[in-house]
Amino acid sequence: MIDVQGLRKQYGDLLAVDDVSFTAQPGAIFGLLGPNGAGKTTTIGCISGLLKPTAGRISLLGHDVATDGPASRRQLGVVPQELALYEDLSARENLLYWGSAYSMRGEPLNKRVQMVLELSGLLDRANEPVKKFSGGMKRRLNFACGIVHGPKALLLDEPTVGVDPQSRVRLLDLVREQTKQGTCVIYTTHYMEEAENLCDRLAIIDHGKIIATGTLAELRAILGERDVLRLTGLFDPTTVAEPLSRIDGIELVQAEQDMLTLAVANASGRLSDIFQALATAGAEVRETTLTQPSLESLFIKLTGKELRE
Amino acid sequence: MGFVWSTALKDWRRHRRDPVALVLWLGIPVFVGGLISMASGGRSGPAPQAHVLVADEDNSFLSGLLVGAMSQDAMGGLIQAEQVDQDEGRARMAKGEATAMLVIPRGFAQAVLMEQPSTLELVTNPSQTILPAIVEESLSILVDAAFYLHRLIGDDLREFAAGPAGSTSVFSDMRFAGISVRINQLLVRLSGYLFPPIVQLERGAEETVEADDADTVSVALLFLPGILFMALLFMAQGLSIDLWKERDQKTLRRVVVSPQHVLLFLFGKLLSGLGLMFVVCLVALTAGYLYFGLAFATLPLAVVWTLLSGALLMTIMWLLQLYASSQHAGGILTMVVMFPLMMAGGSFFPFEAMPAWMAAIGKRTPNGWALEQLKAILLESVEAGPFSIALVALIVVASVLFFFGALRLRSNFAQG
Question: N or C: which end of chain A has fewer CB within 10 A?
Fold first, then answer.
């Protein structure tokens, strides 16, 4: 189990992570969903011991990360967002080296390396220098280096960024494979569909704060069955609220001069009412985007903005 | 130790697959050393000789002795004296045709014998550095010798210079024999001081070195430790850049989040660097021992000392890299430090060929200091007591720098 309580990380005036708390269970995938710069990698950095938290407590498989670092890291695997490989070494040499960093030696290490190479589909290229690999193969090896020692807890920091669809599917299968063996996984991503398909529990993070947490079903319940309707054009934020409030079941999530965000049940059937109300307020609608209930629409509802790439 | 060993092994593999860097580390010092060695005559070429123009305006017995002494025996190998007219000499010096010009003023002998002040003028060629220094030093020795000679047999010399008393134009046999016997007795008495045991040591050295060209062998031998330390500096600088590579390819972060301490990682890298240095030291020193006919009993000590010095240089370069703001800045910073260290520290020119003030500074640089110890090992002049202190100091300083490097690596550098 990975337990994070009141985590805070500050760089000078910048508060990168602000009072983040969550618990990730063994045999399950806990997703940290948020845009770039939301604080996901900083959170992972603090859990892995790379960064020293400004405040808060992190317990990793029963070990306090601050006071019992090496013991906590012994059962931890980390797959960083950027490739962390020796390009002039072969895949096998990379795995052997990173296995040795977790005190693995001799035959057990060789067997484990062979198994991980097979699992990641790199066995036939195991002895080639990594610099000859494709991007997807490097990603798989990057993942393999994180699990070569058979960790009980695994931190995956956007492991599928820049990966071709085929390699992405393979990587996600590898992650599921780990949880079947009882590994506790924390998975950060800004891909909604990945989070929806993979994660058992999720926390949505933005500007260093967790803004929602729960299972996928619990998070969807926050939205209800409402769609998210985004209108772009010319609006007067002070005058549009009143005519819209007369329509039942509409929530004005965000109002700006060039954009309105609304949460509306059965939005497609109520568009004419909405346009009419806006016309009375002197607004000019140029573009309409309707999003079905999803993590994406939840994120828009919670933050008033789309998940940025 | 398992992780230390696997880190060293990993780095050896990486270095082996980058043969260009290896060739450069070894090739540049050998190339530069070869050029310098050739420029200074190498082992088989003639020894450099200073060409000194002498304008003897005194034309006395004493000035003749001075000029003769400059071009006799050991000094004769270094200095070639040519008698010239003062005007001609100055004109030739202006054209840069000689190393130096010595002007012996009129009345020099009389002034020396009567203990009056007298000045010898030495004009040196500014386009040369080493040979004029040799001439100046030699002349200084001769002037000192003349002073002591005067102290000891001044009365006899004065009598000799004044000529026979009375109306006779020659000394009587008895008077001449008396002066000769007194000078001879004095020389016998002083022989114990004039020919101390160190002279016997030099004779011993002549026997071990090839007979015909002993001086040039010694000069060439002086270049060996310098070139070796140049190679070590190049390697230390090149290997230090690897910290940035580890950081940029994010493998350093992976190490930090592993249960291993960065000290072990850094120690593995040090071991890997020392492995490469060991190969270089062993090859270069073995070749040097064979070439110069040195006593092989000191080879292990020379290798160990050179390796420990290499460790010190590596930790210095690491620290510079770890405190640099970027890889580019680190590269420039280490280069800016490395080249002056090479220049002053005896890698380009032996200390023996440097002006005294520069040699004094050079011997206080880390590589210059270590180089002097290595030279003492090679020449079998190392003393157990001071060397033990130097060894302990080297290990302590390298360890402290290593520890600070590891701290910096963990607390700051790896997070970048």
Answer: C
Q: How far is A105 from chain B (nearest CA, A)?
A: 8
Structural domain contains residue B201 = no
Only one residue has tokens 């009993």, namely B297
Q: Which domains does chain A have, with CATH numbers?
A: 2-220 (3.40.50.300), 225-292 (3.30.70.1150)
φ, ψ for residue B169 (rounded to 5)? -100, -10
Domain-located, residue B153: yes
Minimal Cβ distance to B14: which of A71, A89, A98 = A89
pLDDT in tens, A49-64: 989 999 999 999 999 9
Interface predicted TM-score of the whole assembly (ipTM), two decimals: 0.80
Report the C-alpha gap between B284 and B378 in whole angstroms. Answer: 13
Q: Which residues pair with A255 in a beta bridge?
A: A260
In a domain, B271, yes or no: yes
Query: Between chains, do A88 and B17 touch, taking CB under 8 Å as contact?
Result: yes
The reply to whether B225 and B290 lie within a common domain is yes
Chain A neighbors of B13, CB-CB under 8 A: 88-89, 93
Strand pairing of A29-33 and A209-215?
unpaired
Please indicate whether, in this complex, the C-beta atoms of A102 and B258 are within 8 angstroms of each other.
Answer: yes
CB-CB neighbours of B295 under 10 Å: 11
Residues in B touching A88 (Cβ below 8 Å): 13-14, 17-18
Distance CA A59, CA A121 (A): 33
- When divided into structural domains, chain B yields a total of 2
Domain termination residue (choose one: B162, B180, B197): B162
| CB-CB under 8 Å, B415 with A105 | no
Mutation for testing the B interface, residue in A86, A130, A132 having most B CBs under 10 Å: A86
Hey, which residues 110-129 in chain A have their CB within 8 Å of chain B? 129
What's the pLDDT band for B1 if we cut at 50, 70, 90?
Answer: confident
Q: Calculate the average pLDDT of chain A.
A: 89
Q: Tell me: the pLDDT tens digits for B42-87?
A: 555 455 677 888 888 888 877 777 777 776 655 666 778 888 888 8
Do B37 and B56 belong to one domain?
no
> With 0-12 CB in 10 A as exposed, 13-18 as middle and 19+ as buried, what is A53?
buried
Residues B146 and B94 in one domain: yes
Are residues B63 and B120 located together in one domain of the fold? yes
Alpha helices for B71-129 (secondary structure H):
73-78, 86-94, 108-113
Q: Is the pLDDT of residue A181 over 70?
A: yes
Instruction: Give the residue numbers spanning the domain of B93.
Output: 50-162
Which positions in chain B have a beta carbon within 8 angstroms of at least one beta carbon in chain A?
Answer: 2-3, 6-7, 10, 13-14, 17-18, 249-251, 253-261, 414-415
Q: B16 CA to chain A: closest CA distance, Å?
A: 10
A135-139, A175-179, B171-175: range with lowest mean pLDDT? B171-175
Q: Are residues B20 and B54 in the same domain?
A: no
Does residue A91 sit at the B interface (CB-CB below 8 Å)?
no
B272 chain-A contacts, CB cut-off 8 A: none
The answer to whether residues A108 and A88 touch, using CB atoms and an 8 Å cutoff, is no
Domain of residue B86, CATH code: 3.40.1710.10
Nearest to B259 among A82, A87, A102 (CB): A102
Once rounded to an integer, what is the mean pLDDT over residues A84-93? 95
pLDDT given for residue B168 in this prediction:
67
Question: What amino acid occupies position A168?
Answer: R
The answer to whether residue B69 sits within a structural domain is: yes
Q: Do A100 and B3 touch (CB under 8 A)?
A: yes
The pLDDT of residue B347: 86
Tokens 């045709």 appear where? B97
One domain, residues B102 and B223: no
Higher pLDDT, residue B248 or B108: B248
- The one-character DSSP state at B325 is S
Same domain, B148 and B223: no
Q: Are residues B141 and B250 in the same domain?
A: no
According to the model, what pLDDT value does residue B201 have? 33
